[in-house]
Amino acid sequence: MEFCPKCGSILFPEKKKNVIFLVCRNCGYKTKEGSGKRMKVEEEIKRDSNVIISKGNQEENLPKTRILCPNCGNNEAYWWMQQTRAIDEPPTRFYKCTKCGYTWREYS
Question: Residue 12 — very low, low, confident or very high, per pLDDT cuts 50/70/90?
Fold first, then answer.
């Protein structure tokens, strides 16, 4: 997969007189095949994946709800939703206690 050096869009192949060109459908940039910026699809997936990484107190950016913590009995927790099963099934709700930091999940 190659990307346009001007606007960053995906370059699409076009064949003219037995020569393959890569053309940007966004800005019109044109080049011979193999001279653009390459990026592996796996790198693109890693960059766009929804991974929650906790450093310090970043949980403070998450919404809070009133729910009983099964670990300490506190009644407030941060929450988020993530699709962990098939797309035709509801997402999983995760909770993290604001007091003890215990994390648990709830299925619908």
Answer: confident
How far, in Å, CA of 59 to CA of 46, rounded?
22
State pTM to two decimals: 0.47
The one-letter amino acid at 59: E
88 an active-site residue?
yes
Residue 48 annotated among the catalytic residues of the structure: no
Q: How many C-alpha atoms does 30 have within 13 Å on its Cβ side?
A: 7
Query: Among residues 14, 44, 89, 106, which one is catalytic?
Result: 89
List of domains in the chain: 2-46 (2.20.25.10), 54-106 (2.20.25.10)
> How close are the terminal C-alpha atoms of the chain, in Å?
39
